[in-house]
Queue: 4 jobs
Job 1
Amino acid sequence: MERVKNLLNISANLKKTVADTLSSEILDAAEKIKNRLDSGGKLLLMGNGGSAGDAQHIAAELIGRFKKERKAMPALALTVDTSSLTALGNDYGFDTIFERQIEALAGKNDAVIGISTSGNSENVVRGINKAKSLGAYTIGLLGNEGGKLKELVDLPIVIPSNDTARIQEVHITIGHIICELIEEEY
């Protein structure tokens, strides 16, 4: 039982640290995404493994509903199209799977979130670079001091931890907060 309490406290303490140090960035992310949605844009999300699950989770909250009934919001996780993912991975290599989708789907009115606990996922790096070249606003949900993505995205949100599980717990909390802040306006 003590081990469980300790793990919960580690998670809670990291969230308290994020509350004290990153609240402004989280609010800024929600405002930037909302502005893009209001101007006819959409939100595109990408990540690998657990971060892919987080991308899908956040997109689903915006397309469906988070807490209240409202109009559906255009959000898309680039991890859900298995035909595109496998064709791109096979024909061009795994590092291109997000870059090519961003090239096809993103525009200057869109926001793009790259989720990477290391900040160094090459396919996310390439997707963010492509999004920036198209004029999309880019946000990074990152960990481990931010990696390469910290310097690439318009808005880095770097969780101060190198524990992948704890970083992912905070990322989905931030995703929920962003969804709630955006939804409050609808």
Job 2
Amino acid sequence: MDKIILATHNKHKIEEFERILTPLGIKVETPDLPEVEEDGKTVYENAIKKAKSGFEYTGLPSVADDTGLMVDALGGAPGVYSARYAGEGCSGKDNRDKMLAALEGVQKNDRTARFITCIAFVSKDVNFTVEGVCEGRITETDNGLSDFGYDNIFESEKGVFSAISGKDKDSVSHRGRALAALIEKIKELNL
């Protein structure tokens, strides 16, 4: 497979997909696709819905991902609602501010969290999903280094996502792990 449609409008996700797939000879194309309502109850449902939409619109093999941040002290919230935790149309900063306020007074050791990403692949003959998980914790403050999601407040084993290199982030992140699983599945199926 030398080309894949990425069904997203998120510039940061596009950068991550390209950073990982382009060196492997897979060209990532992001045509102007219709918006898809992410109304699934799980990240799996949303990823599949978006990838199907990309395939139906272009007729080409399409991938899409959906990610949820599960914070233990918040009973697993925001989960599938991570992108709109602070409400429809909110910014990443709005979401981070709401999370930090919700965790006010929660001790460092009790701020454990995990990102779960599902990537769906949809083509004429083959459909599948893969996932990636990254364990970590929510920091006490926003370091202000990025405007991408929760990267300023999620600390992985390599450090806070926004403060480490793209290569280090890809080696441990939920999306990096899901993309590694996607690459393996593509090889396994000889796509």
Job 3
Amino acid sequence: MTTADKRPATNRRKFLAGAALAGAATIAFPQVSRAQTVTLKMQGSWGAKDVFNEMAEDYVKRVNEMAGGRLRIDYLVGGAIVHPFQVQDAVHGGQLDAAHTVTVYWYGKHKAASLFGTGPVFGFNANEGLGWIHNGGGRELFNELLTDIMKRDIVSFFAMPMPTQPLGWFKKPVRSMADLKGLKYRTVGLAADLMQAMGLAVAQLPGGEIVPAMERGVIDAFEFNNPTSDRRFGAQDVAKNYMMGSHHQATEYFEIMFNKRKFTALAKEQQAILQYAAEAVSSANEWKGMDYYSKDLQELITKDKVNVIRTPKDVFAAQIKAWDGLIEQLGKDPFMKKVMDSQKAWVKRVVYYGLFNATDYRGAYEHHFGKLAL
């Protein structure tokens, strides 16, 4: 064998030796990683049975699996440490490292919070709203609200474009706007201002308190979010009329927040995992919602014998009129006007494209499945 013939064997031996060392390092590496694990304590705003709690766990699972042992989130259900509406204070103050919630739950601190979730109806859906947050200036405006105006030590990401929230649950069917007048109704955020302007008396309650309040007569009607959440906490046991469609909360998203000091102390790749896991779970949550919500709506009809009805057109008209009044009032605050103007500029361009270009989905649906009673 010539010298040239020997070289490949020598190179192979060097390669195999190097691979063995690399393999040993790979085996040892997780032990080093575990020793350096950063653990973040996160609380949700959701009860253990709520689908939103499951969706929060979906986010935590993605972070923990992607972080390779160097970063971990320990998740707690709503109320484990603080009240579901108080997670922002707890994250800002360091009592919690993180929270999974919605901005509307701290709307009492600044009404602009509701504009980053459940604001006026300008014609955009929640997916288009997330587009505004990521690409239309919404993220920068939200950071201005948190950091410059409210002086909060928080970093937040948004996830899960939620479908339109139903008008909700009623003891009697709502046949017209007149049936809503004077009712004691549960909702949250700017939707509370909207319903009050329409002549309802509003109570703002977290999800876990709704059914007991209905049973005690504290409220006459309520909305929460979706058929799955509603069914899981027993809405069908305290009311049998479910009104679908509304302008009160046409869009919403989860806010995944972190204490800024804890977040900035993390390595850049760990910060990236927390951010990009929110983007990944946004799609996963939306797809899960499509499956769960549609199934539970059918089960409410077939198993629970709920009377599912489309909200009357005059209620939609009254809501639009009430929103007009609120928009004028809220616009007196320069920051809120800036946010709404930014949203309208995004909607005028983006929704125009969407509406002008969209095929006739309803026509195709009705061709295959029959006319919709809407």
Job 4
Amino acid sequence: MTDADTVRQTRTASHGWYIQRLARQLDLWMAEELAAFDLTHGQFAILMMVIECDGQTQAGIGQRFAMPPYAISRAIDGLETRGLVTRAPHPGSRRAHLVRATDAGRALAPDLAAVVARVNARLTAGLSPERATDFLDMLQTTLSRATQDGCS
């Protein structure tokens, strides 16, 4: 077996290689869809989280997405400028701010959910409904071991 054969065999048996390629493709599809709303993928993710879990701190949002503070701040700045979220002082900390969705931000929820539905349909187009459900179950199980999900 040549070095090239060994490398090819390693790559084609790598979960991470497939996940990374899939993540890049999903990012492209999401960028296409989100362009209509003038949202970046990061802004979209933060807005969806704030709609689901209103009143998170910026630091909490950053931990949830494993994003550096400057990236969270920039994304929230953009959402705030557009009137989709607001920052309010945290009642228990002078340094922290709570991020809340505005009515305009919440009004985007159905359209953004439709974006997710379209991208998910594109992703699972070659799978039967049963296999698509199994795929989602596997992703949720695998991810839950590596990250925190839900509001907290």
